[in-house]
């Protein structure tokens, strides 16, 4: 049994990760400031003997004896990370320093939830880990993109200077049950709009692409990454390479929900990447043949069913 700290554990991805780690027989400390996460996401874990919930903001130091740290605390949706951009950068940068400091003190292994956003609006397609990215350092998305890039730098330097055992994953757009209905990301927006019969809001002309990964595939890749040999630190892309336009996504959601919603077009936000698709060759090689198993249709079905129940409560 390992003692594992999950920051951002009451969030969408973090809650699935806590569940998985508990099911594997570990002790889990879930740390969250409830900015975008909620106790509801982890309600079902509260009675678990080996689950502990701590309200804490990772911009402040935290002390605990742990074997592993999964650093997932950070708002991930553009609406949320742009709400207080300075705080977003602090969460990524000071949060990384605090968690790396903890890992150094207690000799814990630490995994960073980085993002495909480190590639910005990519000029290389699909994106391999060797691509340095095309990021605007002073735009609307910079607080998130540059915060995450700086966190990667800190991870690498703590590893080089202090021999901290690190792992970096670059997560591509992930969706699934427990996304917040007002999260603002495209999958949750379209599903909620379709279920309510409201207009589906496409930003721009809808030809921009994303590659959508179901949350279970991400959790599997994340846990496998933590368990790789110490010399493999990443960064490694974790995502589903099947690419869709936002128009295709809207059509699929309208079909699956049987909704009468119409599509409406709104302006494309600044610096919105035109395309995104992970190159997952490295993940396949290093993560014991890992690859996404759940296709968009099946993943959307279970996500729609989650939101259907939530919205009818
Ligand atoms: P989320 O917003 O649902 O979860 C983030 C969690 O972190 C929330 O519970 C929030 O309350 C908590 N949090 C935020 N700031 C904090 C702070 N200062 N101190 C303590 N807790 C704090 O988002 P998510 O989709 O679950 O994303 C989880 C992680 O994965 C994030 O680090 C995100 O950058 C990364 N990621 C997610 C995606 C995706 O598509 N879901 C893609 C790339 C990277
Ligand atoms: N998007 C959209 N309608 C929405 C929300 C988002 O068309 O209601 C678009 C957004 O402009 C982007 C894509 O969907 O091109 C993915 O957006 P999301 O916020 O989910 O993720 P990110 O841009 O961070 O990849």
From TrEMBL:
Residues 5-302 form the NAD(P)-binding domain. It comes from the Bacteria. Pathway: Nucleotide-sugar biosynthesis; UDP-alpha-D-xylose biosynthesis; UDP-alpha-D-xylose from UDP-alpha-D-glucuronate: step 1/1. It is a single-pass type II membrane protein. Its cofactor is NAD(+). Pfam families: GDP_Man_Dehyd. Coiled coil: none annotated. InterPro entries: NAD(P)-bd_dom (IPR016040), NAD(P)-bd_dom_sf (IPR036291), UXS-like (IPR044516). Keywords: Decarboxylase, Golgi apparatus, Lyase, Membrane, NAD, Signal-anchor, Transmembrane, Transmembrane helix. Its EC number is 4.1.1.35. It is an enzyme of class 4 (lyase). It is found in: Golgi apparatus, Golgi stack membrane. Transmembrane segments: none annotated. Belongs to the NAD(P)-dependent epimerase/dehydratase family. UDP-glucuronic acid decarboxylase subfamily. This is UDP-glucuronate decarboxylase.
């Amino acid at each position: 049994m390992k003692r594992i700290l999950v920051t951002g554990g009451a969030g969408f991805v973090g809650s699935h990760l806590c569940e998985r780690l508990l099911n594997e027989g570990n002790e889990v400390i879930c740390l969250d400031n409830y900015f975008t996460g909620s106790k509801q996401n982890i309600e079902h874990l509260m009675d678990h003997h080996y689950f502990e919930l701590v309200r804490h903001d990772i911009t402040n130091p935290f002390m605990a004896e742990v074997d592993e740290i999964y650093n997932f605390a950070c708002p991930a949706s553009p609406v949320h990370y742009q709400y207080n951009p300075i705080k977003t950068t602090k969460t990524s940068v000071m949060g990384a320093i605090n968690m790396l400091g903890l890992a150094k003190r207690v000799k814990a292994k630490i995994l960073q939830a980085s993002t495909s956003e480190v590639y910005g609006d990519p000029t290389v397609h699909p994106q391999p880990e060797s691509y340095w990215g095309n990021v605007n350092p002073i735009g609307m998305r910079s607080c998130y993109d540059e915060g995450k890039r700086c966190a990667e730098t800190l991870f690498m330097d703590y590893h080089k200077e202090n021999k901290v055992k690190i792992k970096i994953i670059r997560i591509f757009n992930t969706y699934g049950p427990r996304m917040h209905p007002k999260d603002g990301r495209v999958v949750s927006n379209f599903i909620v709009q379709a279920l309510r019969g409201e207009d589906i809001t496409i930003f721009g002309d809808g030809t921009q692409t994303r590659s959508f990964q179901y949350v279970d595939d991400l959790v599997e890749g994340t846990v496998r990454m933590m368990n790789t040999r110490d010399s493999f630190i990443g960064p490694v892309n974790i995502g589903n390479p099947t690419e869709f336009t936002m128009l295709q996504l809207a059509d699929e959601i309208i079909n699956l929900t049987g909704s009468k919603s119409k599509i409406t077009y709104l302006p494309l936000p600044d610096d919105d990447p035109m395309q995104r698709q992970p190159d997952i060759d490295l993940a396949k090689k290093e993560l014991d043949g890992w690859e996404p198993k759940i296709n968009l249709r099946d993943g959307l079905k279970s996500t729609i069913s989650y939101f259907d129940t939530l919205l009818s409560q």
